[in-house]
Amino acid sequence: MDRVFIFDTTLRDGEQSPGATMNRNEKIRLARQLEILGVDIIEAGFPAASQGDFEAVRDIAKAVQNCQIAGLCRALPADIDRGWEAIRYNPQARIHTFLATSDIHMKYKLRKERHQVLEMAEAAVRYAVSKTSNVEFSAEDASRSDWDFLVQVFERVIAAGATTVNVPDTVGYTQPQEFAELITYLLTNVSNSHKAVFSVHCHNDLGLAAANTLAALKAGARQAEITLNGIGERAGNAAMEEVVMAMDVRQDFYQLSTNIHKEQIYPSARLLSLIIGQPIPPYKSIIGVNAFAHESGIHQDGVLKNRQTYEIMTPESVGRQEEDMVLGKHSGRAAMTKRLQDLGYHLDEQQTDIVFTAMKKLADRKKEIFVEDLEAMVLDEIFRIPDKYRLEYLSAISGNMSIPNAVIKMYVDGEERTISDFGTGPIDAVFNTIAKVVGRHPKLIRYAVNAITGGTDAQGEVTVKLEENGKTSVGRASDADIIVASAKAYLNALNRLAKRDEESICARL
Ligand code: KIV
Ligand code: ZN
């Protein structure tokens, strides 16, 4: 069977999607999970985009050593220098450089003629090859480019040393059969095509990203650029879980294999969803809560008789286990550490102590602690950016006989403040009070509460999206009390806004 390389761009293209911003610790945590998942290449970011991006890519390149780390660079020497500076700590670092090749992009965006684009692409690849032999070139908007021009571009960059050439469907425009024909055309007409891996990168504007990716793989492409949960620019990218599981379930048709450990698919999807605070839609294929639920009587009857009547894959095969109660009030540190390690979290002593204390506190309020509760605690307690604003104490009063109000004690840069205010409901009162304390009044764009597990004692997971001076930020937090979870999520979003302010001040200095 032919091997397909999985190039994960969750941390780059995925992070470009609205509300999916991650901090450096969260990015490193996700990159480690991608390594466990078995992806071949992680595109860690766009180092020249900002100081924050640069540092995150550099730290991922240092932390992850068992798969290739790629950094995206425009076809410019300065970008390539910056990209290489960030990724060079990884033993198999890859420079990924790109340039648009469609007439519309060349004319309006680049203002360049075809011969200039050819020269620029070749020069960028030559420059990248002077740093590493692992170089990928992407012809941006390839699916709307002239096919014969693409042949020329790929011939030139492969001759210059590119070992992977990528054919992006940048605007999600192509159709499966057409895209397969394009790949066949390129493999046949690019005279040195045997010297490079052909890759595809599909966007989902018409809902065809996974279908187009699979059609291209069937036609001979051997690298798929994907993201977890399909996040990405606009309508997103091809979803890893869909592309990988289609090849797996229909091995008879594709005859292709990947290095992905399928049982890590669901834990990875869930981790991303927790980090970015965007719940997985219930009907989402493979990872959604309904993906394996059988509602109709006829289906249930069939499944009871033989699961294969209505199930083309098992939930266990993608790492979805029915988790029983995992821990409780009397569970010890060792049991918790073991459970965390099973989930892929390898915490040091100090981090374990922090989570253990949080677990004991939660166990006083909630009888059963599930895997999801543990994960939420690790994210809340460990992978948080250092907080400028920190909640110490909160009391909120509501009901139909009183005006909702909140009293909050919190720290701002280590200084204690206590204040109270009213609102139209308890959450509104809490948000108003916090805004008063910190002296910022961002606009609330989104507020969502989700029960992490079943039962009335379930922890509430709250996601808050704020906008301030044209910048948005998402905050997430969980707690057995949804008002407390809301306050923490609001503060988390405010801390992210504050962190960005600091970064832009540093960038100006
Ligand atoms: O969609 C696109 O064309 C890209 C390239 C930079 C690969 O993301
Ligand atoms: Zn893209």
Q: Can you give a write-up of this model?
A:
Helices cover 42% and strands 20% of the residues. By secondary structure, the protein is α/β, with parallel strands linked by helices. The chain has an eight-stranded parallel barrel with strand order 2-3-4-5-6-7-8-9, surrounded by seven helices. A three-stranded antiparallel sheet has the order 11-12-13. A three-stranded antiparallel sheet has the order 14-15-16. Strand 2, helix 1 and strand 3 form a beta-alpha-beta unit. Helix 1 packs antiparallel against helix 11 and helix 8 packs across helix 9. The longest helix is centred in the last third of the chain and has 27 residues. 3-methyl-2-oxobutanoic acid binds next to strand 6 and strand 7.
- Give the mean pLDDT: 91
The name of the CATH topology of the largest domain is TIM Barrel
Within the largest sheet, what's the order of strands? 2-3-4-5-6-7-8-9
CATH architecture of the largest domain: Alpha-Beta Barrel
Broad structural category: alpha/beta
Shape: globular
Assign the CATH class of the largest domain. Alpha Beta
Q: CATH H-level name of the largest domain... which superfamily? A: Aldolase class I
β-strand percent reads: 15-25%
Helices, by number, come to 17
Q: Give the domain tally.
A: 4
Strand segment tally: 16
Largest sheet: 8 strands, parallel, barrel
- Catalogue the unreliable spans: none
Give the CA-CA distance, first to last residue.
55 Å
- CA-atom Rg in angstroms: 25 Å
Secondary-structure topology with pairs:
Blueprint: E1 2-3, E2 5-8, H1 24-37, E3 41-45, H2 51-63, E4 68-74, H3 77-87, E5 94-100, H4 103-110, H5 114-129, E6 135-140, H6 147-160, E7 164-169, H7 176-189, E8 197-202, H8 209-218, E9 223-226, H9 240-249, H10 251-254, E10 256-257, H11 265-276, H12 297-305, H13 333-342, H14 349-365, H15 371-381, E11 389-397, E12 405-412, E13 415-422, H16 426-438, E14 443-451, E15 460-468, E16 471-479, H17 482-508
Parallel strand pairs: 1-10, 2-3, 2-9, 3-4, 4-5, 5-6, 6-7, 7-8, 8-9
Antiparallel strand pairs: 11-12, 12-13, 14-15, 15-16
Bound molecules: 3-methyl-2-oxobutanoic acid and zinc ion.
